[in-house]
C-alpha cells in the first residue's frame, strides 16, 4: 500500500480548506476529529447525519480532508487512524478554523439553542 502524503503547513491554502469543508459530510467528520484528543478510525464515521456512508465515499472524504491539510491519517494494522491538524492550521491561518466552526454551529442551530436557554433563564 502507498503511504499517505500530507501537505506541509506552507502548502495548506484557504481555498483548499474551504473546498474540503464545503461538503456537509466532510464537515461532520472534521468536527468529530477536532472535538476529540484521540485518533479515530474511519469506522467511527460510517454514520453521518443519520445516514450510512459507503466505505468508498468515506475514503474519498478522508482523502480530500487529508489533501487540504486538515487531518493526518496513519495506518495501524488494517485500520486508518485520523487526527486533526488544527494546531498547524491555526498557526498558518489564525482564527480561520474558529470562524468556520462558529459558523457551522450557528448554521446547525447549536448556538441558537444555547442563546434560547440563556434568554429563558433571564426572563
Describe this structure in words.
This protein is of the alpha+beta class and 123 residues long. It has a single domain (9-105), classed as Arc Repressor Mutant, subunit A. It is 52% helix and 15% strand. It is built from 6 helices and 5 strands. It has helices at residues 14-20, 24-34, 55-67, 86-92, 96-108, 110-122; strands at 40-41, 47-48, 51-52, 71-76, 79-84. Strands 1-5-4 form a 3-stranded antiparallel sheet. Strands 2-3 form a two-stranded antiparallel sheet. A hairpin with a 2-residue loop joins strand 2 and strand 3. Helix 2 (24-34) packs across helix 3. The longest helix has 13 residues, at 55-67. The model is unreliable at 112-123 (pLDDT under 50).
Instruction: Write the CATH fold name.
Output: Arc Repressor Mutant, subunit A
Taking the sheet with the most strands, its summary is: 3 strands, antiparallel
Q: CATH H-level name... which superfamily?
A: Winged helix-like DNA-binding domain superfamily/Winged helix DNA-binding domain
Terminus-to-terminus distance? 61 Å
Supply the key terms.
5 strands; 6 helices; two-stranded antiparallel ribbon; disordered C terminus; Arc Repressor Mutant, subunit A; globular; alpha+beta; 3-stranded antiparallel β-sheet; 123 residues; single chain
Amino acid at each position: 500500500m502507498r503511504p499517505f502524503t500530507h501537505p506541509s503547513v506552507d502548502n495548506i491554502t484557504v481555498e483548499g480548506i474551504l473546498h474540503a469543508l464545503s461538503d456537509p459530510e466532510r464537515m461532520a467528520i472534521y468536527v468529530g476529529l477536532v472535538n476529540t484528543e484521540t485518533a479515530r478510525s474511519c469506522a467511527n464515521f460510517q454514520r453521518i447525519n443519520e445516514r450510512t456512508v459507503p466505505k468508498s465515499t468515506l475514503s474519498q472524504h478522508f482523502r480530500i480532508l487529508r489533501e487540504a491539510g486538515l487531518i493526518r491519517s496513519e495506518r495501524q494494522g488494517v485500520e486508518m487512524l485520523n487526527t486533526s491538524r488544527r494546531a498547524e492550521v491555526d498557526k498558518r491561518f489564525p482564527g480561520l478554523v474558529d470562524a468556520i466552526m462558529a459558523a457551522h454551529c450557528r448554521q446547525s442551530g447549536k448556538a441558537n439553542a444555547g442563546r434560547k436557554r440563556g434568554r429563558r433563564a433571564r426572563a
